[in-house]
Amino acid sequence: MDIFEKCHKFRDADTVKEAGLYLYFRTISSGQDPVVLIDGKQVIMLGSNNYLGLTSHPEVKRAAQDAIAKYGSGCAGSRFLNGTLDIHTKLEERLAEFMHKPAALTFSTGFQVNLGVISCLAERGDVVYLDKLDHACIIDGARLGFGSVVKFHHNDIDDLRRRLVVHDSRKAALIVVDGVFSMEGDIVNLPELVKVAQEHDCRVMVDDAHGIGVLGAHGRGTAEHFGLEDNVDLVMGTFSKSLASVGGFVAGEERVINWIKHHARSLIFSAAPPPASVAAVLKALDIIEREPERRAHLWENTRFMADGLRAMGFDTGHSASPVIPVLAGEDQLAFFMSKRLQEEGVFVNPIVSPAVPPGRAMLRTSYMATHTREHLERALEAFGRVGREVGIIQ
């Protein structure tokens, strides 16, 4: 059998394209701003993770430009060998300080953080406990390790407790969860999870890709939001959302970070984050601390849209964050609604099976501090027209 046979048989994307409903890999001709340019048309962006609106901030762009002028466009090697620059070290010190953790380590992408961290910690005989709706990179990281993997029902602490009751206490255990779940927008029940973890001597790692910059009085994420920073052992974060760049990091105890630094394959065998990306994050951290009003405005926009969508009759699930899903139901309807919304001048992301269970397809929307009330009112009007058109709302 030809290993490419499955590739030639794959027709799912072709079928959607033939129906004129293919909405992935859309080409944007502008920055990730509240309004973007697609095919020469201005569209309100409700599909970006640029929560604090920093990707186009003049200071962030200038910092990236200055870094290129000083260091060049790349590092030409891994952090482990020749690729560590002084600004990598500076950023790690800055991240540790910001996150109130003893140490931090940067990776070239957020995906690589979870891939490397979880796989190098989970050795033979260890157990990794995962929420069933954890991000793909958490699941892949656990699969790559030599430990066993146990999944519990989404945000169901009773189910986690039941599984831990039968846990062999001779085996080391790590619980890994999203802080903010990237599709549903709900927040992990961290207080109860931490309590159960302590009862069973488990370590806790939180993927706060969508929480850092968004949750907590100072933007340190889910653990700060719940006042549990001392009870979470490792925090993962990404630079591609609130921090306006690309890359990721993990923060925690110094000896644990040292182990990861010398064992995580996705760090050791990957090129170092480029200077421009590192400098952009450093400047974004300064702005986050200097301008807390950005986070306040983000939450004002989030509440406005959540209230508006629910008032019209849309099902937004259990979202408690700037990620607000709009339930469509069938995959085809999610594609159709996304296309109609783009025609109405609004960009949303269609999320279909297997990313969600069959019959639970959704439109994933997300918001920025830099959206104006006019942007959001226009978006709600478009949702109302399309929702009534397809019969989801009255």
CATH C-level of the largest domain: Alpha Beta
- Low-pLDDT ranges: none
Trace the largest sheet across and list its strands: 3-9-8-7-6-4-5
Return the structural class: alpha/beta
What does the radius of gyration come to?
21 Å
Question: Mind telling me the CATH superfamily name of the largest domain?
Answer: Type I PLP-dependent aspartate aminotransferase-like (Major domain)
- Give the DSSP E fraction (strand runs of 2 or more residues): 15-25%
Report, as a whole number of angstroms, the end-to-end distance: 53 Å
* Dominant shape: globular
Mean pLDDT: 97
The name of the CATH architecture of the largest domain is 3-Layer(aba) Sandwich
How helical, in percent, are the residues? 40-55%
CATH topology of the largest domain: Aspartate Aminotransferase, domain 2
Tally of helical runs: 15
